[in-house]
Amino acid sequence: MRHQKGERGQGLVEYALLIALVAIIAVAALSMMGRSLYTIPLRDL
Predict the structure, then answer these.
(1) Which pTM value belongs to this model?
(2) Which long-range contacts (CB under 8 A, 24 or more apart) does 19-24 make?
(3) Which of 5, 7, 10, 28 has its CA 20 to 30 A from that of 44?
(4) Residue 45 CA, distance from chain mean position
(5) Helix segments in the chain, DSSP class H
């Protein structure tokens, strides 16, 4: 399979964007979970 000029770079950019999107979603999810952990009453401990 022959690659056109710049096709490999385009694939790397798409891969990097996908990783960035997953990282943003993970940070947002952890941030929301962190806030909800502070609202749990600690009297049962």
Answers:
(1) 0.58
(2) none
(3) 28
(4) 33
(5) 7-38
Pairwise CA distance, residues 4 & 18, whole Å: 22
Residues in the chain: 45
- What is the token pair recorded at 7? 């096709």
Q: How far is CA 45 from CA 2, 15, 29, 39, 42, in A?
A: 63, 45, 25, 14, 6
pLDDT in tens, 1-45: 455 655 667 889 999 999 999 999 999 988 887 766 666 665 555
Q: What's the pLDDT score for residue 30?
A: 86
Place of tokens 């399979």: 1
The structure tokens listed for 15 are 């891969």
